[in-house]
From TrEMBL:
GO terms for cellular component: cytoplasm; nucleus. Keywords: Cytoplasm, DNA-binding, Endonuclease, Hydrolase, Magnesium, Metal-binding, Nuclease, Nucleus, RNA-binding. Belongs to the translin family. This is Translin. One of its GO terms (molecular function) is endonuclease activity. InterPro entries: Translin (IPR033956), Translin_C (IPR016069), Translin_fam (IPR002848), Translin_N (IPR016068), Translin_sf (IPR036081). It is found in: Cytoplasm; Nucleus. The keyword Nucleus applies. The keyword Cell cycle does not apply.
Amino acid sequence: MADDTSESGDNSISSIFGGIQQGFANEQREIEEIKILVGSLEKTAREILTVLQKVHQQPSKEDVCTKGREMFALAQRQYAELASKIQPEKYFRFYNHWMVVNQQFAFLASFLLYLESETLPTKKDVADLLNVKVTREEGFHLVLYDYLIGLLSLASEVSRFALNCVTAKYYGWPLKISAFLGELDAGFRLLNLKNDFLRKKYDGLKYDLKKVEEVVYDLSIRGYNPNVTTIT
């Protein structure tokens, strides 16, 4: 009788831990699939960045925006494939695997949208360009934190753009960018940011704003009319 009980207990333990091991194996397969898809997104992000950064080297933004839009079509398909692999309840279990690339794409989408409209892109604007949802309830979505990191990366990029525009004698953009960064800074001041990576990125925004304001001031004392020449 005791032997039967012992054997039954051993079988129960084997069944329990065998099931746990199977769960581990299934999750590892999911992770490997996710890594492959995220790797493809990372490659696309690098290619889009290469295209968008050409705006620093050429006076016209139209060609850059057109090419950027075309390349985002690939990213949209890749995001759709990734989203199809992730059950809504598992989003944050695997979130760390795509967090960095999400932040990079939030920046790239914001940069393209800003070049096109010269206004602050909303979270929905960015999510739509990436072909992801806006809220957690909808499924695979753009996390607010990633959107904000993307905006702060945008601030660094457009401050660099302002300097390069002056070098190319396009004096309209620095004034526009100064106003944009001022509004962005005012918006972030409304947030109660804690002492984390987001706060450190925000400190960079204040430096970017100051740098562009100095450019605008220098142009004004030299008598350049910032509205004479603009990039189209």
